[in-house]
Amino acid sequence: MNRVTSLFGIQYPIIQGGMVWCSGWRLAAAVSNSGGLGLLGAGSMHPETLKEHIRKCRAATSCSFGVNIPLMYPQMEEIMQIVADEGVKFVFTSAGSPKKWTDWLHQRGIMVAHVVSSSRFAMKAEEAGVDAIVAEGFEAGGHNGKEETTTMCLIPAVRAVTTLPLIAAGGIATGEAMLAARVLGAEGVQIGTRFALTAESSANEAFKNYCLSLEEGDTRLLLKKLAPVRLVRNNFRSAVEAAEAAGATEEELRMLLGRGRAKRGIFDGDLEEGELEIGQASALLQGKRVQSVAMVMQELVEESKRAWEKMQAVL
């Protein structure tokens, strides 16, 4: 037991990332039932859809689960009210300042963890009163920090400026990486990519299988003029790279991105014209098949234990 497992009432200090078009109730419930903390990804859900997923998740697990809410999305008041009305106990906020909503959530008995990409933002999150911090490095998939600080550099930097429970994220897909994060000062990990490619993920099977074939260097952080996002190589990414190389404006990039591009790629499985988001850790999974969440959790725990035993023998 440590502060992360105690805070969320879970067996293992493993949190599943709340990823758009991947993190529905099946994935969140499966992670929670396997001893971690499952998160619903509100970023790809209309308010009524989120309500439905909260209720289905509660029916599928008696364990702790939470909701990830990107603060840059619209209908925030409605989403927050649904979370409170439905009795959700844990909210992970990201992509914005937690200052506005943390007290509001606390007044309704909801604990708040906030995702940051720098030690400066970690200090601001602590000042806002959050209960825990997720420090997410440059390796992560989806939307990312402009600072491009890697997880190995970010975790000790954040640990040095905050006393809050610290969760490491970005590039963590193995038990060895979990142990490394703990050594650097994290008390738990948040894993996205590995869970995005499981059987219970709501992502399209074509997307999952494509990501399991990726090699080192097949993802890049782009669209920094808008909101930085890590993209997989395909026709759409090539178009983004060409536009950015030509000095495209923010408005031109928005036009290229259009509406529903991530849904088209991740949920619908358009591997060429969709926005395919996944982390660098996908290359570590090359050749693996799509596994169940239970199998992934078992592997992570066993790998972490073996890595710890190996380090003890070496030391």
UniProtKB/TrEMBL annotation:
GO terms for molecular function: monooxygenase activity. Signal peptide: none annotated. The keyword Oxidoreductase applies. It holds the Pfam family NMO. Keywords: Flavoprotein, FMN, Monooxygenase, Oxidoreductase. The keyword Metal-binding does not apply. InterPro entries: Aldolase_TIM (IPR013785), NMO (IPR004136). It comes from the Bacteria. PANTHER family: 2-NITROPROPANE DIOXYGENASE, 2-NITROPROPANE DIOXYGENASE-LIKE PROTEIN. This is Nitronate monooxygenase. It comes from Bacteroides zoogleoformans. The lineage of its organism: Bacteria, Pseudomonadati, Bacteroidota, Bacteroidia, Bacteroidales.
